[in-house]
Amino acid sequence: MNHFKIILLFALIPISGMGQVAQDSELFKTISGLDQQYFDAYNSCDLKTQATLYAEDIKFYHDKGGLSTVKQDIMEAIKNNICNKVTRTLVAGSLEVHEIKDFGAVVMGLHTFYNNQEPNAIAKPSKFIMIWRKKDHHWEIAEVISLH
What we know:
Elements: H1 3-12, H2 26-43, H3 47-53, E1 54-62, E2 66-68, H4 71-81, E3 86-90, E4 96-100, E5 104-115, E6 126-135, E7 138-146
Parallel strand pairs: 1-7
Antiparallel strand pairs: 1-2, 3-5, 4-5, 5-6, 6-7
Helix pairs in contact: 2-3
């Protein structure tokens, strides 16, 4: 079973609280801060900051859009389809951080995307999983699984 299927299996099992680091831990604070930094950039169309947070070998799994593995293509899609059109809000209390020894962390949670062009549209929370890798003292997003 490849790693994507394993992660997806864990994401779909109700395991809230199992194995996650404490919310007052340094790792949780770091990863939740990075999540905030990334999505502040996402919401404000700060493509430069987003690009610095994506790994060069990023894998982005989207249930509707498929798999993307070219960083520049992902950035172009964000520029064309997200910038000034969509706003992301994290569902309070939903963030889970799980350490991956000698690699980084997996973060899971729920977030809601609001279509800024349709302010009356009903937005529903969706699940996300991000794998953050610590490489040369720098954190980067290595993989994303976005489920709507």
